[in-house]
Each structure stands twice: as structure tokens, then as C-alpha cells.
Amino acid sequence: MDIQATQFLKNGIKTAEYFGFRHIDTFKKNPLCLDCDKKIDLSVSAQNKKIDALHGILCGGAQMFCDNKLQAIEEPILFYNIEQVPRSNDAVLALHIYNVEKSIAESILIHAMRALTLDLGFSDHSVRINSLGDRDSSIRYVRELTNYLRKRLDDMPEAARELMKEHVLYALMYLIEKEHELAFRSPNPLEYLSDPSRKHFREIIEYLDMTETPYEIDPKLIGHHECYSDALFAIDILDSEGSRLENAPLTIRGGRYNEFVQRNTKRIIPATGAVAILKNKKTPSRIPGKANLKPSVYIVQLGFGPKIKSLQLVDTLRQAGIPVYQNLASDSLSEQLRNAEAIGVKYTIIIGQKEYVENSVILRDMEARNQEHVPINNVAQKLKKASVAV
């Protein structure tokens, strides 16, 4: 399948904006950032550009966050940027979510990247996911992994033994790359998760189950300990036999990189991101513009189940050409309703626990000041009749 970079970026930008991401330049104009006189110093060096295994593009999101003084904004921040892999012809779309500790951040990233994958024509794909857990989880896992490999030094390749001197995870990543038997018998990081990390990971798995996303839990999907914490994920393009396609034209990887941000800024700032790379397609000199969507609808949700239903509804409405506002990261019903009022949308869709169970929504006409219960499968059709599609 031959996909041009312009098509990739145009689809990517539109998809990102439907899911609430805004171009990084948008935040430069935010008064809170403009008035902020304290900048967090962070420079992504050549050395730490290697640790995200994504050419430093994921870690570069942290530098954009700091350079633009986005720490002045306390609410969830979702931004995207267009790049090119250094010294290559690969075009890149990167999505980042800051100030969201909960698993909805990873869920949004996976859903948005899957939507882009489908839009580009890759219907056969699957998600791989793993978790390294928080710092306590990582300490326990690394201790067990170290004991395991030390007892088997004689069976290890010399290169892996040398990497053990730097860090045990370097050795493991080498063994995984070489498909060595020791790697596949090594301890499973999921067995050493702390209670909070176990809960976080379980929620992401529940999201994947609820959305009928094809996935597998892959304990050997490992990231650099100085970059990643908690969840890591990949979206793999599959061949006709359902196997992972080698040299696929599209690569998508992501995860939570709180560890990198904290290590380099000395601040606890929740950070997650995902990077889509279109191989052998140079970023065009004229990058497609912003989608400039002007939604007339705001989706309001409250609770884990309603968040997932809302995320699915955003995608359903996206496919119907109906742009929406949403703040899936918010846990405050009143805050979301105030935002809807302030923006001045014509319709508000509300999904609470009752609506989640009944598979319905409350559709509120903000101008007529009336509302009705609507089956969730009928929402797009009803809004289209109200002429809110683009």
C-alpha cells in the first residue's frame, strides 16, 4: 500500500484534532504561558534521544512542554507536532498528553492512533501492550531479573554480559532482539507491579476489552528504564496470515514517559505519548494545515465506563463528520458543563453511569434548554438531522 506523506499527515492532523489534540503552536498563545516568567530548563541531549527508541521524538515532547512553559497550565494538555526522523526520509506525527495520571491518557492515545491506522487502510492490525510499573515495581522487577541473569551468565552471549555491567535491562533488550532463549524464560514484569500500577494496567486492558480492540499482552515489550514507566504499547500491522508484518510502512509506538520528565526536570509531571512513523516518505515542505474544526457539540462524561463510551462516541461522530469538544481526562461533571456553557455549543451530550448501563446518552439542547434520552447508536443520525456535521 503506497501512502504519501501528505495524506498521512492530513489524516493524522484531522484525527488528532477530533480527539482533542491541538498543535503545539496553539499553546504558545495561551495567556498563562505568555505570562509565565519561570521556564523549566530541559535539553534533550544526543545521548538521551536514544532512550525512547523513537529517535528522541517522544522525549522531544518534554522539551516542547518546557520550552513553551506549558507547566503554567494545570489542566490536561493534549498536543501534537509534525516532525521528520533525523537523517532519514520518514515522516512523523507525535501525540502527547500531559497532566493526566489516569489510564484514560493511554486509552486516548491508543484509540486515536488506531483510528489513524484504520483511516490509512490498515484494517489488519493489533495492539501489543506491557507495563514496567512505577518506581517500586521497577525496583522489584530489576532485582529479580538481575538474580535470574547472574545465575545464567555462562549461557549468555558475551555482548549481553558486557551490557549487564551498564544495566540489566540493556542485557535483556539485547537478548530479546536476538531472540535468545534466556529472554523468553526471564521474569515477567507484570508479576512485580505495585497495587497502583496493577490497577492502572488493568484499566487499560478493560478499555481494550470494552472497545473490542485486538491486542496481546507482551511481557517482552520493554522500554528503557530512564524513559518509560507503567504502560508501553505498539500497534503492529499484520500480514494476510495474521502475523506481524516485517518492514511495515507504518510504525506506531508509545507509552508513559513520566520517568524521563522527572529525571530531567526534578518535577513530577504526568506525561504520555505516541509516535506514528511513515517510513520512506519525506515530510513535505508544505505541511497540511490545521483541521480548524468548529464543533457544535460537547461530550460530558463521569466515571471510567462513561469515559470509554465517550471515547468510542467521539470516534463514531468523527466518522460521521461531526466534530466535538470533550475533556475525557476530567473527573468533574460541573467543570465540563461550565466549559460547554462557556464555549457556547448548541448541544451537550452527557454520559453518566446510568446512561453507560443503558447504552444511551442525554442529549441537551443548550439553546432551547430541553433534553432527551437517546440510544447511543442513534446519536450521530440525530445530530446530522440537526445539521451539525461538517
Q: Any chance you could write out the topology, listing elements then pairs?
A:
Layout: H1 5-18, E1 22-23, H2 24-28, H3 31-34, H4 57-67, E2 77-84, E3 91-98, H5 104-119, E4 125-131, H6 135-150, H7 158-164, H8 168-177, H9 181-184, H10 195-210, E5 215-217, E6 231-237, E7 250-256, H11 258-265, E8 271-278, E9 297-301, H12 304-319, E10 325-326, H13 333-343, E11 347-351, H14 353-358, E12 360-365, E13 370-375, H15 379-385
Parallel strand pairs: 1-2, 4-5, 9-10, 9-11
Antiparallel strand pairs: 2-3, 3-8, 4-6, 6-7, 7-8, 11-12, 12-13
Helix pairs in contact: 1-5, 5-12, 7-8
Describe this entry's structure for a reader.
This protein has 390 residues and is α/β, with parallel strands linked by helices. It is built from 15 helices and 13 strands. It folds into 3 domains: 5-134 and 194-278, Bira Bifunctional Protein, Domain 2 (BirA Bifunctional Protein, domain 2, 2-Layer Sandwich); 135-190, no CATH class; 297-384, Anticodon-binding domain (Rossmann fold), CATH 3.40.50. It has helices at 5-18, 24-28, 31-34, 57-67, 104-119, 135-150, 158-164, 168-177, 181-184, 195-210, 258-265, 304-319, 333-343, 353-358, 379-385; strands at 22-23, 77-84, 91-98, 125-131, 215-217, 231-237, 250-256, 271-278, 297-301, 325-326, 347-351, 360-365, 370-375. Strands 1-2-3-8-7-6-4-5 form an 8-stranded mixed sheet, with helices on both faces. Strands 10-9-11-12-13 form a 5-stranded mixed sheet, with helices on both faces. The radius of gyration is 22 Å and the shape is globular.
